[in-house]
Amino acid sequence: MEKLRVVVAKPLANEYVERIAHSDPRIDVVIEPDLLPPMRWPSDHEGDPAFSRTPEQEERFEALVDSADVLYGIPDTKAASLARTVRANPRLAWVQTMAAGGGSQVRAANLTDEELKRVIFTTSAGVHAGTLAEWALFGVLAGAKDLPLLLENKGRHHWPTSRWAMRAVSDMTVVVVGLGAIGRECVRRFAELGATVVGVNRSDKPVEHLSKLYLSGDIVEACQGADAIVNALPGAVGTEGLISREALQALKPGAILASVGRGICVDEPAMIEFLQSGQLSFAALDVTAVEPLPTESPLWDLPNVIISPHTAANSDKEDSRIADLFIENVKAFLDGGRLRNVVDTKLFY
């Protein structure tokens, strides 16, 4: 029986290549490190942007990825490269993306319906849930505990003569929008701190620890009078701008926003306006509508905003966790079982 040919199309440490290669005798794992950019940090999926291939190396790289039954990673993490190899390689059966929101990368490739039916796409959803839930928690806590004021006072060497009351997460109602793996983990973490957690989701599938679940069309009602909102939405069909001006306006004055999903899911002009007016007292943003965030964006200069350059999901264990997820899916793929995190190629999440 011919072995399943798995081509690693992203930078990957040898220990994880070996772990995958030895996980099942029915697979053959192939990687050519000299054709891949060096990693700048652990679990760097894109690699050094300064890396370039010679024409001969590019020809070798395309031939390599075009020989795959399964691709581990999107070549060069580019939608155009994904589209090219899907069309050049009729034997390609499955692509494992590194991003939890890998569906948006598949969507950007503009594949035909036939191509989307022919190739299975899976994401790394769940791998990043813990780190992103921690960021959301950090963001809401930072707003609740007046981090901007504390930093301002520290910078001025100023000890106020009067104390003030900070907010407690345990007294808050927190709206989590998007209840995939990241959103569910956010719900759990906030509930464990005693918050009342309200969920907004495309489906009404029950989620543990929620006090109430609303469908996406009822997001304004869900936000009514809430103390904080967490964006955990994927960049999928129907999610762009879902956290709308009306939803943000419905929050309690002085509410906090933490964004760990996709930046396009928040009405950014409205968010900026409300941060300036005080309708939103604080925002912790790991994602923005345009990335990198343009230098002229008002968000850079707002004192009540903290910005992380889409890095809150990263951890030195990320590649290890994705490898384990992939190994689980390889066995399911070979045994005719059900794969985890298959992209819905109508909604792209």
Automatic annotation (TrEMBL):
Q: What is this protein called?
A: Phosphoglycerate dehydrogenase-like enzyme
Tell me which Pfam families the record gives: 2-Hacid_dh_C (PF02826)
**Keyword RNA-binding in annotation:** no
Q: Which UniProt keywords apply?
A: NAD, Oxidoreductase
Keyword Electron transport attached: no
Q: Which PANTHER family match?
A: 2-HACID_DH_C DOMAIN-CONTAINING PROTEIN, D-ISOMER SPECIFIC 2-HYDROXYACID DEHYDROGENASE NAD-BINDING DOMAIN-CONTAINING PROTEIN
**InterPro entries cross-referenced by the UniProt entry:** D-isomer_DH_NAD-bd (IPR006140), NAD(P)-bd_dom_sf (IPR036291)
Q: What is the lineage of its organism?
A: Bacteria, Bacillati, Actinomycetota, Actinomycetes, Propionibacteriales
D-isomer specific 2-hydroxyacid dehydrogenase NAD-binding domain residues are 141-312
User: Do you know which Gene3D superfamilies this protein is assigned to?
Assistant: NAD(P)-binding Rossmann-like Domain
